[in-house]
Each structure stands twice: as C-alpha cells, then as structure tokens.
Amino acid sequence: MKRVIYLFVLLLGTLSAAAQDKMYDSYDDLMKDLGDVATTLHKSKRSINQIYFSPGADYEIYSEGNKELTKYIKKRCFAVRLSDTLYVNLKHMKYKKYRFGNWYAQGQIVGGNVYFQAQPLGQIASSTLLPKEGSKLGGTVGDAINASSLNVRVYYVINPETGTADFVGKEKMNQLLSSSPALLEAFSQEESEGADVIGKYLDKLK
Q1: What are phi and psi of 101, to 5 degrees?
Q2: Distance in angstroms (rounded) separating the CA atoms of residues 117 and 125
Q3: Comparing C-alpha atoms, which of 194, 78, 188 is closest to residue 132?
Q4: Mean of the per-residue pLDDT values for the chain?
Q5: What is the pLDDT of residues 139-198, one digit of tens each?
Q6: Torsion from C-alpha of 27, 31, 36, 38, nearest 10 degrees
Q7: 18, 73, 128, 152: which sits with the fewest CB atoms below 10 Å from its CB?
Q8: What are the φ and ψ backbone dihedral angles of 167, each rounded to 5 degrees?
C-alpha cells in the first residue's frame, strides 16, 4: 500500500512540475527550456475592439499583484509558457519594416523553430484575407475592422539570427512538407494561407 501511495505522490509531483508556468529571457533560453518558474501569471485575451484601438497581439500576460513583474513581462520577457501553451512577446518583433505592436501571440515549437500567430502585415495582409476568414460585424466599424484584417491570423517563424519574423505561407510550407509527399499533396489542395490551415500542417510536423 505504501508503495502505491509513493508512486502516486511521485506521479503527482511529476505532473505538477510539467505544468509549471515559466518565463524566458531570450530565444536561446526558450529553446533550452531555461526559464524562471512563476506562480502568479495570468493571461487575458484581447477583444477585437481593444486591438482596433490599441494595435498589437492577442494576449496580455500579467502577474497578479506584482507590478514590477508585470512590467518585466510586458517590456523585456521574450516568451512565457502557461501550462502547456507558449506565448511569444511581440513588443520588439518585426516583419520586414513592420512592427507587430505590444502584447503576446500564441506560439509553438516545431522542428527546432518558434512559430507564432499574428495579424498579416504589409503585402501579405491583402493576399491572405479571404472572405470566409473575415467576421462580418456590420456597419462602418465592422467594415474598417474587416478591411484592416484585425480578425485574421497567419503564421510567422522567428529567425534567431536576426531576431525578426518571416511569413509562413505556401512557399515556406512547401519546403517544410517536401519530405512528406502525402502531406505536401494534401496541402497543395488548400487555398488559404490563414493560421487555421497552416497550423493544421505544422501540428502534423511535430
């Protein structure tokens, strides 16, 4: 009986450790999983209206009751892992000459690279905005939001050498799927470069 209890406590401890929230200072720290454990982190999803009036990523990460830690998370922290979900700080991230703005984007690590979902910027904003991906809010505000693609997400991959982001569209996915003919064939039938489609194939590469 004691052995059963011991094994249960050991398993519980292992699961608790795996689910710890962590903060990462840099890209290298994230890839090596050298993060600082935190116990007071929370996230809130920003609404379309909030993004419209204060451009940036989808999530705010903060520490309950700790203003200094919240300030660090907002301005200096590279990434945060809450349970099993990764969030990347886009405050200093750029795609070509465009900045993403403040806040955090949901990300994932695939094949030794960090990918994240964010708004399409620059030329890719018009090329990836398909009617089925736009929510129809109606009215002048709805038209403005749809026109600026605030409700559309695409994938980017971080270039660790430059600290900038590269767009993950059909060209990039064709390269990633080149060693899997079946996946490449399935992807060739897709019309969208939106995050829902790209994410589906990134998941298969894990």
Answers
A1: 100, -170
A2: 13
A3: 194
A4: 84
A5: 554 445 454 567 899 999 999 999 999 999 999 999 999 999 999 999 999 999 999 999
A6: 100
A7: 18
A8: -70, 135
**Residue 42 contacts residue 61 (beta carbons within 8 Å):** yes
Note whether 163 and 32 are within 8 A (CB): no
Q: What distance in Å separates the CA atoms of residue 125 and residue 147, rounded to the nearest whole number?
A: 9
3-state secondary structure string across the chain? CHHHHHHHHHHHHHHHHHCCEEEECCHHHHHHCCCEEECCEEEEECCHHHHHHCCECCEEEEECCCHHHHHHHHHCCCEEEECCEEEEECCCCEECCEECCECEEEEEEECCEEEEEECCCCCHHHHHCCHHHCCCCCHHHHHHHHHCCCCCCEEEEEECCCCEEEEECHHHHHHHCCCCHHHHHHHHCCCCCCHHHHHHHHHHCC
